[in-house]
Amino acid sequence: MSCCNMIMGVVAIILAAKDYFFLASLMVIFGAVFDRYDGIVARKLNVVSKLGKEMDSLADIVTFGLAPSIIALLFPLSTFKISGYIISIIFITCGWYRLSRYNVSHMNNVYTGLPITIAGCLVAISLIYQSEYTVHPHSTAFIMLVFSYLMVSQHKIKKI
C-alpha cells in the first residue's frame, strides 16, 4: 500500500508538470486513501517492520510534501517567482522534519504537530478548489505557511 501511495505522489507530480492541476491534486487525495490502509493491512498480514515504516515515510514525503508543493508552485504560486520557491521548500522541509520526528518518537496515540498526510491533503483540497474557482494566490501561500508551522509545532493531536 505504501508503494501505491508513493505512485500516486509521482503521478501527481507528472500530471502537474503537464498542467493537469485538478487531477494532480486528486492523486494526492488518493494517496491518502492508500496511506490510511497500509498500516492496517500490514498488521492484518503480520508484516509490520522497520523497513515498512521507513518506506511509508518516504512515500509520505513524496505524496504529501513534494507533490502538493510542486502543484502549488506550478499553479497558484507561479506568479510569486522566488518567494513561491521558498514557500514550497519551507513546506517540504517542515514535512520532512515532521516525518523524521515521528519516526524517532514514541507516539502513545498522540501526534506532536500536524501530520504531513493531513497538511498535504488540505493543501491538495485547496488546490482543487482553486482549479475550479478564481482564488488569490496569496491564500495558497498563507495556507502552506500555516501548515508548515503546524507540522513542526509542539501541538499535541490525539490519534483517531
C-alpha end-to-end distance? 20 Å
Oligomer: single chain
Q: What's the overall average pLDDT, rounded?
A: 92
H and E string: HHHHEHHE
Structural overview:
- Strands 1-2 form a two-stranded antiparallel sheet.
- The model has no long low-confidence stretch (mean pLDDT 92).
- The protein has helices at residues 2-17, 21-44, 50-74, 82-104, 116-132, 137-152, and strands at residues 110-112, 156-158.
- Helix 1 packs parallel to helix 3 (50-74) and helix 3 (50-74) packs parallel to helix 5 (116-132).
- It has 160 residues and is mainly alpha-helical.
- It is built from six helices and two strands, in the order H-H-H-H-E-H-H-E.
- The chain is 76% helix and 4% strand.
What key attributes describe this structure?
single chain; 160 residues; two-stranded antiparallel ribbon; 6 helices; 76% helix
Write the layout of secondary structure elements.
Elements: H1 2-17, H2 21-44, H3 50-74, H4 82-104, E1 110-112, H5 116-132, H6 137-152, E2 156-158
Antiparallel strand pairs: 1-2
Helix pairs in contact: 1-2, 1-3, 2-3, 2-5, 3-4, 3-5, 4-6, 5-6
